[in-house]
Design brief:
Layout lengths: L2 E7 L8 E7 L6 E3 L5 E3 L5 H4 L8 E8 L10 H14 L5 E5 L5 H11 E2 L5 E4 L12 H12 L2 E2 L2 E2 L4 E5 L2 E4 L4 E2 L8 E2 L7 E3 L3 E3 L13 E2 L7 E5 L6 H8 L6 E6 L9 H12 L3 E6 L12 H9 L2 E2 L5 H14 L2 H7 L12
Parallel strand pairs: 2-5, 2-6, 6-8, 8-11, 18-19, 19-20, 20-21
Antiparallel strand pairs: 1-5, 3-4, 7-17, 9-10, 11-12, 12-15, 13-14, 15-16
């Protein structure tokens, strides 16, 4: 994969108040109508023509755009690795980062980056759009302007939001807590189990009590992934053959089991036996609730006590996106036993501590 880099200084002739990297991976945001009417990638060297208000931010912007923009449905761990490498290479030069990404898998990529960037002390703000930037009613302009403002915001020499976040629809969310919940409205993302980090109106109101200001060390980028992870979503009537086929997938290392409510599952003997057999073979099974809010509480009801007995791991209120990407990284970077213990620890605020 290759990319090109251009510099846009919106502060000239004065000094910029901040330096920000803008990474365009693909997605609806950067698509425009070509001469034949088809959608083609946007030329970011012309961004000031489409967004003259960028000059008001007085930023030195390094624009990094993938030569072959990716529809977010085609995002893979190798793309997460590339984004991580770009951030690492520009880390000392830039005060913050904005990543333009398709909305469909943005929560997966934001979650992955939150775990990859150990010791992060600068903003990495993901955003995108439901309509291309050239459309009259596009949400792209406000999303980008505010994301750049958040990425460049500092106080007393430190970043105001030193986290991986998603900004969309006037709301700033922790990246590994957000989920896409809308395909047609502008408020496409929601964070049900963690408060908003900021709300943008006439001013940007930061919720400092919920932003991670822990002292960070030097940036370390973890980038080894093992994709031997699967999702098994329960539903009434799920049969033995379906569950068996997933649990016996060649190369399978871990399963995210999406259970009912607070972590409940069928007590059918065949189901329990299949899961116990998988765990005995060394497959890590995580209990994640299908509900967008609340958390798993194994053992609260009889229909989850048997899961404790067979060796399930509960990660309380993690999102599926967060669980899948964290497992892939842990399995790629460590031995299985380390992955089993580390996945239950909060690395980047993805789990509510109890």
């Amino acid at each position: 994969m290759s990319f090109k880099t251009i510099s846009i200084n919106t502060a000239i002739p004065n000094d910029p108040r901040s330096r920000v990297a803008l990474i365009y991976t693909g997605g609806t945001f950067g698509m425009v109508h070509g001469a034949d009417g088809s959608l083609v990638p946007f030329d970011f060297s012309l961004i000031l023509e489409h967004l003259p208000t960028l000059r008001n931010l007085k930023l030195d912007i390094t624009v990094v755009s993938f030569d072959d923009p990716i529809d977010s449905s085609n995002i893979e761990p190798r793309h997460w690795q590339l984004i991580g490498t770009i951030i690492q290479d520009l880390y000392e030069r830039c005060d913050g980062f904005v990543v333009l990404h398709g909305t469909d898998t943005m929560a997966f990529t934001a979650s992955a980056l939150s775990f990859m960037l150990r010791g992060l002390a600068k903003p990495v703000i993901f955003t995108g759009a439901q309509l291309p930037i050239t459309e009259t009613r596009s949400d792209a302009r406000e999303n980008l302007i505010t994301a750049l403002e958040i990425a460049s915001a500092g106080k007393d020499g430190k970043a105001v939001v030193p986290e991986v976040c998603i900004y969309f629809g006037n709301e700033l969310m922790r990246g590994n807590r957000a989920r896409k919940v809308e395909s047609t409205h502008f408020d496409a993302f929601r964070s049900d189990n963690y408060p908003l980090l900021a709300k943008a109106g006439v001013t940007i109101s930061y919720n400092a009590a919920y932003i991670d200001y822990r002292v960070k060390g030097e940036l370390q980028v973890l980038n080894q992934f093992n994709t031997g992870v699967s999702i098994l979503k329960l539903f009434p009537g799920i049969n033995e053959a379906t569950v068996s086929s997933i649990l016996n997938t060649p190369g399978l290392k871990a399963v995210v089991l999406e259970t009912y409510g607070s972590g409940n599952a069928t007590t059918a003997a065949w189901f329990t036996e299949l899961l116990k057999s998988a765990i005995d073979r060394g497959i890590l099974v995580l209990n994640i609730s299908q509900c967008v809010g609340g958390m798993v509480m194994q053992g609260k009801y009889e229909t989850s006590r048997h899961l404790i007995d067979v060796g399930f791991s509960s990660v309380r209120d993690m999102t599926t996106e967060s669980a899948v990407t964290k497992l892939m990284l842990l399995l790629g970077e460590s031995r299985h036993l380390e992955a089993e213990s580390e996945v239950q620890k909060s690395w980047a605020g993805e789990i509510t501590e109890v």
